[in-house]
């Protein structure tokens, strides 16, 4: 493969922290990611009943916390439809921050990552403010650790009276981050909230894309429509880059995005065989680690500008190896 040059230096984004080694979206996972060399740590943001941003994969916290073991919250189990999907469980918007802080995180993928379950119950649910403070604490000696927050289900939250955009901009501005030079990317699978953010801030925005389906807010007919020449131009009008499912990415995708100035940050690179193409498996155990460095280097060779990974150290090492080949 001919190596394609990225538009900007390749960054390593710690997907929910080092979620391959610690329960995701915990200060422990983010801290280990920073120690392993992450350029950015990624919190998925949802809101509490009292409008505080916290980091959870979803507002449904049934599988990522011990809420089910708290009898005092048993009556809050409910059924909701979020982005067209039915969920039964407990939801952040029904808890105050003080109540959420009584819960403890647990591993979301215990069958694939049983070693992580030994950390169940040890860590609380972090706020965006705590994550910002962590990044700033480690931004020393010339190193800058950034954050890469995702607004989760923004149109859903707006629909229940908890709009995210202005609140997020205010919190980032209070941290001193309010322009394109800030060590921040804001990402979303939706379109209209990114367009709204574009009108509020010059912080860099990333349009997430999946290999099937469409944004929940109906901002475009499908994610596929975003990957045409016209689609990329439309995204470039409000976003700094795109975050595609890695299965969407080839050299043509990267070239077409770069042609309109969009950076490309694919997701998510994971070490377990289960998540790797068959050609990169090691052995037959789905939990065993395959040849993730080879996969990452393939995408760096395509010219991507960064990548999300659950295994920060592997990502940093793969990037270093790729640079040494140049």
Automatic annotation (TrEMBL):
For this protein, the record's PROSITE patterns field holds: GP_PDE
Q: Give the enzyme's EC designation.
A: 3.1.4.46
- GO CC terms, sorted: periplasmic space
An example Gene Ontology biological process: glycerol metabolic process
As one GO molecular function, the record gives:
glycerophosphodiester phosphodiesterase activity
> What reaction gets catalysed by this protein?
a sn-glycero-3-phosphodiester + H2O = an alcohol + sn-glycerol 3-phosphate + H(+)
What SUPFAM superfamilies would the database entry show?
PLC-like phosphodiesterases
Residue span(s) of domain GP-PDE: 10-319
Which family does the entry's similarity section mention? Belongs to the glycerophosphoryl diester phosphodiesterase family.
Its protein name is glycerophosphodiester phosphodiesterase
**What is the scientific name of the source organism?**
Sphingomonas aliaeris
In the record, what lineage is assigned to the organism producing the protein? Bacteria, Pseudomonadati, Pseudomonadota, Alphaproteobacteria, Sphingomonadales
